[in-house]
Design a protein that fits this description.
heterotrimer, A mainly alpha, B alpha/beta, C mainly alpha, A: mainly alpha, MetI-like fold, two-stranded antiparallel ribbon, 2 strands, globular, C: mainly alpha, 2 domains, 16 helices, 75% helix
């Protein structure tokens, strides 16, 4: 298959998936759940409910409702969220909270990639040495770690115990030290603290404070991704190192360093890149738990609050958003893979 | 695109007969995986296999000989044409209707390791046909399997082992035992010896001949090895790009009438350096079976080809004494003498 | 009709009439009886569950009785076994010797299942034991034992070799030890735990680990150690249950889709694509939310729905590659049916990567289920469940860290053990290391 055909086919295949995603969210909230709760709050009088139903077309037959659901989504009407201080359209809440989550996810990803790839390489090249054993257990522990508990324990040791000992310590949560900076009021431009601090305010103190607040949640969230990347990097590196062209490169008398970094690494990176893309979905799951623990004003914490308040519109919107992000990430990964590795196109 | 089944007169001596048998594989591509071409693996083969004989089928790899064997057994559904087995048209039988016919046919594959399930013991592998057809189960099946294994030179110790515990030759014999389990009348041997080494090869071939006599079997023997085919077969069919170009009851090394057959024969190495270096090497590659050449399919590689060969497709016709050739100039061409022929003659004289 | 059956074993000949004699007929009667009992038990539970679910949705009954929701899986399995037993019973008298070994397996499985249903244990197990005894009567035994022994020999040999490889890998041994340990703790929770799962000793609230409460107590005086022991029951059961159901569902769908291909395959793949578009935890959240009630049962339904596509994909890929293998064509050439090829040849050959995946998934499912329960989807406050215990402890993290510490360690250790074992058996099953 030609590359062009492959790209077109892959994009076309994403369309039914997006529709499937819409259908599932619709099914969950309209068939299994009661959709009218998307438009009412506890303060809505019962007598108003039939009117609301009518206004939103919930008295129509199901196919009509399905069509309306999709057209509402496309028009940007994702329902009202009632879990914030005041009722707000879901899409507005998402726009408001999205940057915080993305900033956290990006930092975790950077951390996981920066540490995971070298760890994987070291582990593969020193197979069955103590370093390898340590790395394997470290990464298996990462896959087996309950994030929510890990976050609590990090907070307990690196914030509370250090604080009690009078040592310099990490903050226990939030994006910034609220007593010094009021981000929403004074500094918010794009919603990304680090970005705003450097580009719009040239405020190093703000930047440093933001960074400090990102360390614990970033590490907590990134550990799982780190573990996945390390394992993938190790196994693909081991596979590549067995290939004939590596033996050939070695037999030419090239140094171990050159062989590993010039010849092996490029090929071993291909599957790892895929995993990095897919790990994004895991990060969104993890954000739900991490943000709760670190009081991070992002989408995850909003979603948990929505759950506790039975805020169906918010859950629906959140699920939809995450799925759409994930579909896009998968699409990009596949396309990158198709470009990097021609074999995949014939699959 | 099925042809209407025509009445075909059947010679009672003929066990298997195909009429203009075709098997095309669709080729997909593009954004919507549309069919963009067809591989003409078997493209109009008509042949007869008589009871008790061995029909050898030779050809280069990719010429469709394996597909032909599988299509005749209805392991692949033919695109068009007809297959007769024992006087009965089996081309369009359903799987259920085919079941009693399956009992009378068997196949031995090229790779014995791959054709035995790695997680199933020999007893169950060889006994599977018996169980499937409800002939025997449990101890009775065991006794019958043991009998079969002994026929191919294995013993009771081998019953409960896994395929990976055997050598290549033993595995092939196990596969033969399985093909024999239902006491079939017709067995397709699909390159049965090409994955074993030469010493084992001879042993296996002789075993097959012995079994043929014992069970009155009819073989279709597929191979790319001319010497083996010659050793085994009563008649030899030569295939090129999905068609039979020559079908001869004679010694293929001595009398050949198709230029392709001659080229194949002359490419067989001769164990004597005095005759070396005369092989007429085929020029070019085998053309793609997706777009086979017009006219005679062999013309791009044939040294004798002329305008007629390029446009008109030669039919397979009898040149006397059951020798069929598909060449416009059959009998008119002078190939010269191959090293094979001279060597055979020299050996004969010595 | 006195057809003789040549057994090939020590020149013994069995007459078909021997299969019609009293002991075999008695055996068949027991099988039929057990089968009926199983049909009644399984049918009641499964139908009951369906009816209750419908009534629950309609709002007729608020809550499903524990014995209905708790034993649904058992019910399904018993229904399947009962059907098998009925078939075996018929095969016994027509002289199919394989049926005897199936009788053995079926009865042992029956015993195992009904050991987990304490209310019925006393009624069902005696007939099973009786059936096993009849199987080993000398007159019956000579009909099947030699063949059974012979069939088992190669399997035992393979198993011994696998065990030998496992023994060489200390990490796998450690993982297995932890799993076995937790399983024993779960089974004998009542004997190990000094206090009940929801027992509160108010005067002992907020106690640090001490001799009376070795891992301390929580805010309402619950003994952490006892609650972890009881929680093992809940958490292990739910993770294994989810993985088993998802595995069976995924395997059936994936195998059919891979083997038959065509439109069905295309449809199944598009459906799994859609499921894969959601991160596991988040889809499960949405499902529990839609189901309305927050409970462990709904968590497990949500996770089953979330998890099956990954098995379907895995099995489909395996089946696609196995389907093209020559041994499948060989089986087809002798006239084996599609279902026989699928069940006897393709599925056994795809099962190894499946086991690895399932083992590692038990860890993953445990983490997700605990996570869901942590964010508030789980059982009501007070139930001994590890995720819930952690969430309970986070409010008191700074003064009583032990409330969260120990349940978290339990989760970590269990998940780690399953991952160690899964990782290890993947290496052990690596064909490059094995003889074949």
């Amino acid at each position: 298959m030609k590359l062009r055909d492959f790209i077109i086919r892959r994009i076309l295949l994403a369309i039914p998936v997006v529709f499937g995603v819409l259908t599932i969210t619709w099914f969950l909230s309209y068939i299994v759940g009661d959709p009218v709760v998307m438009y009412i709050t506890e303060r809505t009088p019962d007598s108003a409910i039939p009117g609301i139903k009518k206004a939103h077309g919930l008295d129509q037959p199901l196919p009509v409702q399905y069509f309306m659901y999709i057209s509402n989504l496309l028009r940007g009407d994702w329902g009202m969220s009632m879990s914030s201080a005041r009722d707000m359209p879901v899409l507005e809440v998402i726009a408001d909270k999205f940057p915080a989550t993305i900033e956290l996810a990006m930092v975790s990803m950077v951390f996981a990639v920066m540490l995971g790839i070298p760890l994987g390489i070291v582990s593969a090249t020193r197979k069955d040495k103590p370093v390898d054993h340590f790395t394997r257990v470290f990464s298996l522990a990462g896959v087996s770690m309950p994030i929510f508990w890990f976050g609590l324990m990090l907070k307990y040791v690196l914030y509370f115990q250090l604080y009690r000992a009078g040592l310099p310590h990490f903050p226990s949560g939030d994006r910034l030290n609220g007593r010094v900076f009021d981000y929403e009021k004074d500094y918010r431009v794009t919603g990304f603290v680090l970005f705003d601090a450097i580009v719009y305010h040239q405020n190093l103190e703000l930047f440093a404070d933001g960074l400090m607040h990102l360390v614990l949640p970033g590490f907590c969230l990134g550990y799982l991704t780190l573990a996945i990347i390390t394992r993938m990097m190790r196994s693909s590196m081991l596979e590549v190192l067995r290939e004939d062209y590596i033996t050939l490169a070695k037999s030419k008398g090239l140094s171990e360093r050159v062989v590993i970094y010039k010849h092996a690494l490029r090929n071993a990176m291909i599957p790892t890149v895929t995993v990095i893309g897919l790990a994004f979905g895991g990060l969104m799951s993890g954000a739900v738990l991490t943000e709760t623990i670190y009081n991070w004003p992002g989408l995850g914490r909003w979603a948990v609050r929505a759950i506790l308040n039975s805020d169906i519109a918010a859950i629906n919107g959140f699920t939809l958003l995450v799925a759409l992000i994930f579909v896009t990430a998968n699409l990009i990964v596949d396309l990158v893979y198709g470009v990097l590795d021609p074999r995949i196109r014939f699959g | 695109m099925s042809d209407t089944p025509t009445e075909v007169e059947m010679d009672p001596d003929v066990l298997v007969k195909t009429v203009d048998l075709k098997k095309h594989f669709p080729l997909t591509g593009g954004v919507f995986r549309k069919v963009i071409g067809r591989v003409h693996a078997v493209d109009g083969v008509s042949l007869e296999i008589k009871r008790g004989e061995t029909l050898g089928v030779v050809g280069e790899s990719g010429c469709g000989k394996t597909t032909l064997g599988r299509t005749i057994l209805r392991l692949l559904d033919p695109t068009s044409g007809q297959i007769f087995f024992d006087g009965r048209d089996i081309t369009y039988l359903s799987r259920k209707e085919l079941q009693p016919i399956r009992r009378q046919m068997g196949i031995v594959f090229q790779d014995p390791m791959a054709s035995l399930d790695p997680r199933v013991t020999i007893k169950k592998s060889v006994g599977e046909p018996l169980v499937v057809h409800g002939i025997a189960r449990g101890p009775k099946m065991r006794a019958m399997v043991l009998d079969l294994l002994q026929k191919v030179g294995l013993n009771e110790d081998h019953l409960n082992r896994f395929p990976h515990e055997f050598s290549g030759g033993q595995r092939q014999r196990i596969c033969i035992a399985r093909a024999l389990a239902l006491r079939p009348r017709f067995i397709v041997m699909d390159e049965p010896t090409s994955s074993t080494d030469v010493s084992v090869q001879a042993q296996t071939l002789n075993l097959m001949k012995d079994l043929q006599d014992e069970f009155h079997l009819t073989y279709m023997f597929i191979s790319h090895n001319l010497s083996v085919v010659k050793h085994m077969s009563d008649r030899v069919a030569v295939m090129y790009l999905g068609k039979i170009v020559e079908l001869t009851p004679h010694d293929i090394f001595r009398t050949t009438l198709h230029p392709y057959t001659f080229a194949l024969v002359s490419a067989v190495p001769v164990p004597d350096p005095r005759f070396a270096g005369r092989a007429q090497i085929l020029k070019g590659e085998v053309p793609s079976p997706i777009n086979p050449p017009s006219g005679c399919r062999f013309h791009p590689r044939c040294v004798f080809a002329d305008e007629r060969c390029r446009t008109e497709e030669p039919q397979l016709k009898d040149v006397g004494d059951g020798h069929l050739v598909a060449c416009h100039y059959a009998g008119e061409l002078d190939f010269g003498r191959s090293a094979q022929m001279e060597y055979a003659q020299a050996v004969g004289e010595a | 009709m006195s057809e003789l059956v040549e057994t090939g074993f020590e020149e013994r000949v069995i007459s078909v009439e021997e299969f019609r004699k009293a002991p075999v007929r008695f055996l068949r009667a027991i099988m039929v009886l057990l089968s009926m009992a199983g049909l009644v038990f399984g049918g009641t539970l499964v139908l009951g569950y369906l009816v209750m679910s419908v009534m629950g949705v309609l709002g007729v009954v608020a809550e499903m009785p524990a014995y209905v929701s708790g034993y649904v899986l058992h019910g399904l399995f018993v229904l399947f076994l009962a059907y098998v037993m009925l078939r075996i019973g018929d095969l016994l008298v027509i002289g199919d010797t394989q049926a005897f070994s199936w009788t053995l397996y079926a009865n042992v499985l029956y015993i195992l299942v009904f050991l987990l249903v304490p209310e019925l244990t006393v009624y069902v197990i005696p007939p099973c034991v009786l059936a096993l005894l009849v199987l080993f009567l000398p007159g019956v035994r000579r009909l099947w034992w030699a063949e059974f022994k012979e069939d088992m020999k190669p399997r035992l040999k393979e198993m011994r070799y696998s065990l030998y490889l496992v023994g060489k890998s200390p990490l796998v041994v450690a993982g297995i030890a932890i799993i076995v340990g937790f399983t024993l703790v779960a089974l004998f929770a009542a004997d190990i735990a000094p206090y009940g799962p929801e027992q509160r000793i108010w005067e002992d609230s907020y106690q640090a680990p001490n001799p009376k409460h070795i891992w301390g107590t929580d805010d309402v005086g619950g003994d952490i150690f006892s609650r972890i022991v009881w929680g093992a029951q809940v958490d292990l059961r739910i993770s294994v249950q989810i993985v088993v159901v998802a595995l069976v569902l995924g395997t059936l769908i994936g195998a059919a889709s891979g083997y038959y291909g065509g439109k069905l395959d295309e449809l199944v793949m598009r459906i799994t694509d859609v499921f894969f578009a959601f991160p596991g935890l988040i889809l499960a959240m949405a499902i529990v939310m839609a189901l309305g009630e927050r409970s462990l049962d709904n968590i497990s339904i949500a996770l089953m729905v979330t998890w099956w596509p990954s098995y379907a994909r895995l099995v489909r890929g395996q089946v696609l590659s196995e389907r093209e293998k020559l041994y499948v064509e060989a089986a087809r050439s002798v006239g084996a049916s599609d279902s026989r090829i699928l069940l006897f040849h393709i599925v056994p050959n795809t099962i190894q990567p499946l086991i690895v995946q399932a083992t590692m998934d038990i860890g993953g499912v445990l983490l997700t289920a605990a996570g869901l329960s942590y964010i508030g989807f789980g059982p009501k406050a007070g139930v001994a469940e590890w995720g819930l215990m952690i969430s309970r402890g986070q409010d008191y993290l700074l003064i009583c860290p032990w409330i969260s510490l120990y349940p978290g360690l339990a989760i970590l250790l269990t998940a780690l053990a399953f991952n160690l074992v899964g990782d290890g058996i993947r290496d052990i099953m690596d064909p490059k290391l094995r003889r074949r």
